[in-house]
Amino acid sequence: MAAEIELKQLPAQLALVVHTPPGTLDTSMERMWDAVAVLTRHIEATGAQVVGPAIEYYPEPLEGEYSFALGWPVAPGAVPGVDVALEELPAVEAVTLLVKGPYEGIWPAWERVKEWVTANRRRPLDRRRPGGAPREVYHNDPREVEEAELLTELVLPLAPLA
Fold it and tell me: What is the DSSP letter of 101?
């Protein structure tokens, strides 16, 4: 059974975030794990309270060399640090799709999301606006579950209806 696309109102969310250096798709996993290491050290050192699953978002198109951001939602009181920003993702309306399985299955799932947006005459929020970047929410850890059990939620913020 295929996962269902949902329309959701996402609340504002405070997050500790690492913005990766530019790189290609071939280096994205290495950059992601580097960001995880930096964030983990910072969270442990500062005692920040993580309140949700990891979020990766893409303020730039995934073409050529690009940067992305990886973070964890945190409770108020968290502090930024060296190479770690404290950011608020604003409340947005978004179309979402939960994908189960290997990360390689994410690309075709993003196409389903884009098709839904077109079919429903909606527009994505400009990725350069705060909260507008497409996101992936990682509901479990590939170091702890089998690849077939990975749960990734695709989140595409939408422009307000005119």
Answer: S
Q: Is the pLDDT of residue 151 over 90?
A: yes
Indicate the helix (H) or strand (E) that contains 29: helix 28-46
Q: Which CATH number fits domain 5-157: 3.20.20.80, 3.20.80.10, 3.30.360.10, 3.20.20.70?
A: 3.20.80.10
Asked if residues 50 and 42 have their Cβ atoms less than 8 Å apart, the reply is no
Question: What residues have CB less than 8 Å from 132, skipping those under 6 apart?
Answer: 92, 124, 125, 126, 157
- pLDDT-based confidence at residue 2 (cuts at 50, 70, 90): low
DSSP result, 54-93: EEEE-SS-SSSSB--EEEEEB-TT---BTTBEEEEEPPEE
The residues that bridge with 6 in the sheet, in sequence order, are 96
Model-wide pTM > 0.85: yes
